[in-house]
Amino acid sequence: MSENAVVRPAVYFKMVAVALCWGGTFIAGRVLALAMPPLVAAAGRFVVAAALLLLLAWQREGGLPRLSGRQVLATLLLGATGVFLYNLFFFGALARLPASRTALIIALNPIVTALAMALLLGERLGFTRWAGVLLALCGSAVVITRGDLGAALSESIGAGELLMFGGVCSWAAYTIVGRRALQGLSPIAATSYAALWGGLLLCLGAAWQWTDLRPEALGLGSALAIGYLAVFGTVLGFVWYYEGVKALGPARAAVFNNLVPVFGVALAAVLLGEQILVSMLLGGALVIAGVMLTNR
């Protein structure tokens, strides 16, 4: 059996697991966004995550490698786009929007990433891969809107929607930069440096919002939400996502983000008792079909 035949199924499994972890971040993020200022919430997430990543890097790789000048710039861009800007937009949007509508907007990520790759780097996706991206996006829309896409589109677009679209763009940039940053760096090292740079930027920004933090926000619910976002949403999610980017390429890895809203709705049903509708099953099937088509 060839090496790819062994490795590639494991990569796909990890990418699906990443989508599951990130589906839960909308629930945890909503809890934090309603409890504290966005930069404070994001800084708390990445202070914990950076510590865990450093421990993981020491355990698996003997610590972090020294960076070249190019790698310093690349990891700084990773931290600025995928950590600082994305979390600023993510928590800002969740403070203004329901988690489900926010998840619908994040499903635009594969489209934005693929367009950016095509326009900026000249990557040709081909008809089949484009069809898979669009099919998965349609499936996400069916899940989140409960089959009533027209009603969702008729709602006004405000600051929350614009903030989440900013998050989509920043994550697309993170994905593309990650392709270059992984040259000579392991996924753990690249993610750790990105978390350190981004966490530093978030802490500097949070210094301006500490006075808005209410004492009652520092409860068990907030602690559990930060722990989930740090462990599953960041450490496992980021490391495995970069393994997918390295193995599949940015455009094909990004299409798995269409599974995020599907898992978000499913977790809401399990954790919050929300009803599972036929539209959720149909939309989920479309998303899975789109992911499979794109990765044929």
Question: Can you describe this structure?
Answer:
With 296 residues, this protein is mainly α. It has one domain (3-124, 151-249). It is 80% helix and 0% strand. It has 13 helices and no strands. It has helices at residues 3-35, 38-61, 69-94, 99-106, 109-121, 126-144, 149-154, 159-181, 187-206, 220-248, 250-254, 259-272, 278-294. Helix 1 (3-35) packs across helix 12 (259-272), helix 4 runs antiparallel to helix 12 and helix 9 (187-206) crosses helix 10 (220-248). The longest helix is centred in the first third of the chain and has 33 residues, at 3-35. It is globular, with a radius of gyration of 18 Å. The model is unreliable at 1-7 (pLDDT under 50).
What's the arrangement of secondary structure elements?
Blueprint: H1 3-35, H2 38-61, H3 69-94, H4 99-106, H5 109-121, H6 126-144, H7 149-154, H8 159-181, H9 187-206, H10 220-248, H11 250-254, H12 259-272, H13 278-294
Task: Quickly count the helices.
Answer: 13
Please tell me what the overall shape is: globular
- The whole-number mean of residue pLDDT values reads 81
Number of DSSP strand runs: 0
**Unreliable segments (pLDDT under 50, ≥5 consecutive)?**
1-7
Q: What is the rounded distance between the termini?
A: 19 Å
Helix and strand pattern: HHHHHHHHHHHHH
The main sheet comes to:
none
CA gyration radius, whole angstroms: 18 Å
Helical/strand content category: mainly alpha
Q: Helical amount among residues, as a percent range?
A: over 70%
Tally the structural domains: 1
State which percent range the strand residues make up: under 5%
